[in-house]
User: What shape does this take?
Amino acid sequence: MLAATMTMTMLATTAPATAGERWSAEKANAWYNGRPWPVGCNYIPSTAINQLEMWQADTFDLATIDRELGYAEGLGFNAVRVFLHDIPWTQDKEGFAKRIDQYLATADKHHIATLFVLLDSVWDPDPRAGKQRAPKPGVHNSGWVQSPGAAILKDPHRHGVVEDYVKGVIGRFKDDRRVLGWDLMNEPDNTNGSSYGRVEPAEKAALGFVLLRKAFAWAREVAPSQPITSGVWLGDWSKDEALKPIERFLLEQSDVISFHNYARPDELKTRISHLKRYGRPILCTEYMARPAGSTFDPCLGVLREARVGAFNWGFVAGKSQTIYPWDSWKTPYPAEPKVWFHDIFRADGSPYDAKEVAYIRKVTGKSGR
Assistant: This one.
């Protein structure tokens, strides 16, 4: 135990410091105040099981993306959070960049800006190029993959491929008005205990912290015109002395603060109050899990009143199967649950809950147009 703790400390403290300059609070607030309140969802097309199926050339489904972002526009959504992946970049930089540009053109047609997520520590640690597996019946996000995979994450000598990807993608789109911002790494210290924990690296959290620090340094070198962030998702954020080192780093290095919250409205309000002390714009980049009490009504209204950006998880029910809850990893569901966990629409555009859709449109101001 002592050896593992020492190794984790060493990994966290020997990672390079962030290069370049963080935006001042004044610059971040000027950026935020100069645009509409960001409201939308985490988006993957219903025809894709994961980031690879969304972005690989053979399965890039622009027609579905166009149709579904039309649903988003109809709700009054003006932003989406979208996950990229390092493998398509490594395989074919020009082709991947072209597909990103095509996606951005389609989103822009629907008046939607995009917050791109570059790296992700959640779900399957062994991503592989090519044809993706079919969804496991009744299981939440049964095919989502990490970026990079564990083999690269735990080998610092292979981080160069991630550096090339991060710098390359941000560099291509660093001045693109269609890009809302760059979410560098999703839940970097997530050990996936309820799903893939038994096959994760033993020091996953420390390894994630190392790569996170590098990702911030790489992004600062590129110096995009859009803000950089990476969200806190666990822990006590009420006071500085309660923060874990990785939480302190995230909150002290992000241009705009971002966080996840799948709890009830009172907890959401508390979390927002804790983060307001930083004096920077705040984005809630994941929320909304109906059975847990994180529902659009009233959470979306809470976020609007606080002028905190709002990105619920899930949009159109499909191969990601996020209508099922997280506990489906332990006990797969034999049929569609009566209460969906995430998602708003079925693939044909019909709403899961018409009253819920009406509420969303009311909050976004779309209902009166």
User: Anything to note?
Assistant: Residues 1-18 have pLDDT under 50 and may be disordered. The longest helix spans residues 204-222.
